[in-house]
Amino acid sequence: SSPMTIFNRTFSNKTVILNGMAVDILRYLAEKLDFRFITKDSDDGNWGSPQADSEFYNGCVGELQRGTVHIGAGPFTKTAVRDRVIDYSTALFQESNGILVPKPERESRLWNLFMPFTYKVWLTIIGTIVGCSLIAWLFAFFSPFSAFNLGADYAVADEVWLKEYLWSCIGSFLQQGQDFYPFAMSARAVLASWWFFIVIIYAIYSGVLTSFLTVTVTKYPIKTLDDLVTQTAVTPYVRRGTNLFDLLSNAQSGVYKQLAEQVVLYDPDVESCPSNPPRADQACVEDYSALLAIALKNCTQYYVANEQFNTGTIAFMFPEDAPYADLFNFQ
Prior knowledge:
By secondary structure, the protein is of the alpha+beta class.
């Protein structure tokens, strides 16, 4: 589990070539205590959970019980269930579980033109265009001082046509100007107010549009464990034999019970999470540090949810009453 254990090569007899924090600690201890070691993976790929039909646990814990290995080096969480059959070293650090989620596809920038204003604001602007056109037309049509009503030689019928005022307001909004100007002062005052309104709207629109075009904001739908269990588009995956697996197996209520009802359990020897190639409907629930390492390496494909949960102490494991355990802890 990166960054504690990074598998470089695995041989047929389950021995492995490793790097990572756990191996660095083992090398330090080997130098101090003058011993050599061979690293291997667990035979069944599990960390260690009780088995109903056996006194031995599966995974690394079971191999420690049987004496197959002498130390369990990795991000093993201290739990009361495991502590019944093995001993733990001095605490190394605190670890939590996290959620690795596929990044949603970026939204098309085609409609960013309309993003500076909300849907309601655009409807308000459309309503304002219609309302301003209607008011200006009413003033011009009924005003005794319009050129058309005065019968002036220079009067045109456009002055009392509603569609001309509608086109004038639309043209002004699109900064295309207009074909005529009403003679009556009341109608002119309405159009002048409309122009001032347009200047303010364009100033706001231009500033907000610049930010939308220069910054792409991706909305992450899953940020907490509650978000994960209250949606159906993404399925949580949990590895068998882990501390979290035991927690979900015994959950009776609350969010962990909800997670247990939705989760897909997988064996690391059969499949992996995240899968290769990545799946958009798969969320990995595992050690936060390991998930963070994956997300940093594949930052365009995954992100880690904000919430950390099920915090526990990480330590190495020894067989019960191992004579060398105190020496390891002292170092």
